[in-house]
Each structure stands twice: as C-alpha cells, then as structure tokens.
Write a structure and sequence with these properties.
about 425 residues, alpha+beta, eight-stranded mixed β-sheet, four-stranded antiparallel β-sheet
Length: about 425
C-alpha cells in the first residue's frame, strides 16, 4: 500500500526466493515510485533508515555474483559481536564474584573487565566500582545508543516502570515479553530476585543491543531485530522464545514494546502478528485469541496505528523517559507533558490510570482520561490527544486544538496566519526517537 508523500513502500507479498541479508538479518523488500509513474523494487536494511548506519542496497532484479555474495557474507560475520552470548555471560559470572571495588566496566569497549584485563584498558573511560545494583540494572551502567534513526535508546523513567508494573499486576499478567524495553525487564527480574525463586513473575528481553548478553543468560535475553522477527543466535534463541510463549494454566502473557518512534508501523505490526501466531500455536485452545500488547508510541502516530492495528486504542497515560529532557516532567520538559502514550488491544476501561497523577474515569467513554481531557457532548468522546483541552468546531463537526481557527477557504481548522492550501508537516517534526 502506497504511503502518500513518501514515494517508498514496504512489500509484504511472498517472493519466490529468500531476501538477502545484511548485518541486521534478512532485509526488507521496498518499492519506489518513480517520477514517470513506474515502480522499482529494492532490498534494504530492516532496522536502519539511514544508509550511513547500514549501507545495504540491492535492486530486486539485480544479479549477485558468487564472489560478491561471499564477500557480503564475510562482511556480515565480521560486523557481529566478537564473542558469543555464552562467552559474555561466562565473563559476567566471573566478574560478579569479585568485590565491588575490583569490578571494572570499560565504556569505550562496552565490556565488563576480568581482573587480568584491567591494565590493558588503562586510559579508557572505565567505571569502577561496579555495584551489584549496576549489574542487576545494566541500563544504568551502559551508555544509551542515541542514533535517532536506528536504535535510539530512550529509557523509561522510574515512574513509568512503576506504573507499568502496577498495570500488569492489576490485569493479572505474570509473563512479560519485553520487546525493546530493558528497564521493564530489569524491574521484573529484580523483583523476582528480591521475592525469591517462588515469585511467579517471568520476563524475557528481546533487544537488538548485544551488550545485554553480558548481563543476562541465554534464557533471559535474546538478541533480536523487531523489524524482521530475526534472532541473531538462530535456532537456540528461537527455542528460548518459543518455550517462553508456552503458558501454564496460571500464567498470562503480555507483550510490552517500545520501538523507535520513526519506525514503520506496518512492519512492526507484522512482527506482533507473527509473535501472536507463535503464541497461539504454542498454547492449545487459543486459536481465536489476540495476544495482549502494550505498545508505547507518540500520540501523533495514532492514525498509523489505527490503519495497521485496528483493534488497538490509545490510552491517555503520558509516558516519561529518563534520558530525554522533553519527554519528562519538570521545568525543561514539554508544558503539555510527554507526547508518548500507550496503545493497547486490552479494553481501555480495564487499564486503571493513577488518580494521584490527575487521571479520572469517564463514564460515557468507559475509560480513564487525563484531567485536561474534557468530555465533548457533541462528539460524545473525550477528544484531547496532546495534553491540552480541545474545543469543538461546528463547521468541522469535530473537536480541534484550541490554537486552531476555522478557515472557510480550506474548509478546515488551521493555525492563524497559515497559507491556504499548504499542508502542515504536523507532529513529524517532533519525532525524537
């Protein structure tokens, strides 16, 4: 389906051959709309939108010589982490046995250091001592990757983690598939450790950041590309994933995902569908069930979510992040609060938002809403999206932002002083992730 104005679409139709691979796994097939109205298809990286981060490009009808294919496979191998997951975790267990003041982490090399290696990293940016809390919560030790076009890591605030855990507990979930949500995985595993092995909470982290292999066993973490459903460790990781999807009678599974804000919604929706299908196959009697999902995403992506995830609704909860100044409360944050919301296929009325943060239950809408979200009797809905009260425009027959005025020439509400006929780029300029 052509995305208007972009000129490029993803092709999901099955091909007669497997797609070529880049360092991030199987590529995606795209089609480009040329000026003369023709289409041309090509393969490109599923994870990176910037060619500077992954320069893979191949026309769909291009013939690749055996020599070029061999060189490509060698390049893909050489760009992978230098050690296996088992090797990294074995190092972790050695480091964990050391006293805190003897533990070192090299930020330049992204590596927990064995005692005999510490001198080799003299002059590097190292962290020492490394506390047990840091080992248990590695996202507070690792430097976040902040390439906004590839794998930006903006991490949940403590408030966001606390709310999410409370929400999951209220909904009686006890198995959490954390897709790109390391902070939540840390919270669940830490809680399990504190409560002892009898705790019924379980979590599996799927993330593209190989650095987590140093802190979690292969049963706790799988290096994973959410945009092509690719497991970097192959069948071993897939088996861990499939086993985790199997639920006993007293277990309830939920996906919690926090993808890059600039991602292609249709691609990730496809992945969620594959995970849901695998979950149904792993559990008898769920052939018609939909796997519950909490998808953290900006409110201005709601039209795209409605197009590709029609059973999802947007909640009013404003999700805050630790390392993004605009997406947190405080004097430097946005006046209207964080633009990030939660999209879910769970009934909105079942997700209780905290009253102490100003949220309330709207009886006509049968859901919790923010304090500024006033119910409009004409729309029969609480219509605010961005953290400001909306006003109803009778000419448009819908509620709009209070800053808009109706333009009879454009036949819609626009900003004062706009140029008639000019389409605003809207909130795409706000994409920071």
């Amino acid at each position: 389906m052509h995305r208007e104005g972009s000129g490029v679409d993803v092709c999901f139709e099955k091909q007669g051959k497997s797609p070529p691979s880049c360092p991030h796994g199987p590529t995606l097939l795209f089609q480009r709309y040329e000026a003369e109205g023709t289409l041309r298809r090509f393969y490109a990286c599923s994870a990176c939108r910037d060619r500077k981060d992954c320069n893979f490009f191949q026309w769909a009808d291009e013939k690749v010589t055996p020599a070029r294919q061999q060189a490509r496979e060698e390049y893909n191998r050489n760009t992978q982490p230098p050690h296996s997951h088992k090797h990294y975790y074995h190092r972790y267990k050695k480091v964990k046995k050391l006293k805190e003041h003897d533990r070192h982490f090299c930020k330049d090399c992204n590596l927990l250091l064995l005692q005999e290696e510490q001198q080799d990293h003299h002059g590097h940016d190292t962290v020492s001592p490394v506390s047990t809390d840091m080992l248990t919560n590695p996202s507070r030790l690792l430097t976040p990757m902040e390439n906004k076009k590839t794998n930006a890591q903006y991490l949940f605030s403590e408030k966001a983690v606390t709310f999410t855990l409370s929400c999951l507990k209220e909904l009686e979930f006890n198995k959490v598939l954390c897709v790109g949500t390391p902070r939540l995985h840390e919270a669940v595993t830490s809680m399990k450790m504190k409560r002892g092995s009898s705790s019924d909470w379980h979590s599996l982290l799927l993330d593209i950041d190989y650095r987590y292999e140093q802190f979690y066993s292969p049963n706790q973490f799988c290096r994973y590309n959410m945009f092509n459903h690719y497991f970097f460790d192959g069948r071993a990781s897939q088996s861990v994933f499939e086993d985790f999807l199997c639920c006993a009678e007293d277990e309830k599974l939920v996906i919690v995902t926090d993808p890059p804000f600039g991602c292609l919604v249709e691609v990730l929706a496809k992945t969620v569908g594959k995970i849901s299908e695998a979950w149904r196959n792993a559990n008898s009697g769920l052939s018609h069930e939909e796997l519950p999902v909490l998808w953290f995403f900006p409110y201005f992506m709601e039209p795209r979510m409605a197009e590709f995830c029609p059973t999802f609704s947007m909640l009013d909860y404003k999700v805050e992040y630790d390392n993004h100044v605009l997406y947190q409360s405080g004097p430097k944050g946005r006046k209207k609060g964080s633009p990030v919301r939660i999209f879910t296929n769970i009934e909105p009325r079942r997700v209780k938002l905290p009253k102490e943060e100003g949220y309330r239950f709207c009886n006509p809408c049968q859901r919790y809403v923010a304090e500024e979200n006033v119910h409009c009797k004409k729309c029969n809905s609480c219509t605010s999206k961005d953290g400001r009260p909306y006003v109803h425009c009778d000419k448009c027959t819908r509620c709009v932002k209070a800053s808009r005025v109706h333009c009879d020439e454009c036949n819609q509400c626009q900003l004062p002083g706009h140029k008639c006929g000019q389409i605003s780029t809207g909130n795409w300029e706000m994409i920071k992730k």
